[in-house]
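Long-time lurker. I teach an intro course on protein structure, and each term I like to show students one example going from raw sequence to a predicted 3D structure in token notation. This year I'd like something fresh instead of my usual example. Would anyone be willing to generate the tokens for the chain below so I can use it in lecture? Attribution to the forum is fine with me.
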Amino acid sequence: SAMALAETKLIAPQRGVVGKRMMEPGMNVLPDQPVLSLLNTHHPMVRVSVPENEIFDTRTGQAARIVVGALRNLELEGKVTEKGVQAHPYTHGYQVRISLGREVPGLLPGMVCKVFLSNLPMEVALVVPVRAVLPLEFGKGHFVWLLDQDNVAQRKMIQVGEIVPGGISVLKGISPGDRIVVEGYQRLSENIKVTVTNE
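-- Reply from a regular --
Happy to contribute to a lecture. Here you go:
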């Protein structure tokens, strides 16, 4: 029994904080079955989705500026360490990883930030519900339905960014204050006047 007890000791491969416990005391564990998730807060990484028309200008080692809104707009410096080669099937963005190179007090996993690569601002400006963003035929882009002041529907081409809490970011094509159709768009067509039930 002493030998069996000694074999139950878990040693973390690195420093970190337990993010999630998958098993409880007394449960049977199979080989290669995850028991804990370990969050590395000592070497934080930032993940950002770079649009396909800007990924060519993104390179490993490129300097980045990060602004963390949750930490009173704290500005940090980092470098690109990984550049994705496979696009997201919906947003057509490529995942890029940025290393901050040091531990940042108060910075927690999952915090939303703004990233600036050289002269390419990756700031998430506007977020709309995912269901309001519709694909064009043959995967040639995305659009939303906008309503003008007379409640007439117009199709508007947009450039989408990454999926974020609350929806999907829109990098180009719409402006603050635009009214976007989020329900009933299945029956819409160009220049059709609609009745607004909720704004």
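Some talking points for your students: The chain has a mean pLDDT of 84. The domain at 126-187 is CATH 2.40.420.20 (conserved putative lor/sdh protein from methanococcus maripaludis s2 fold).
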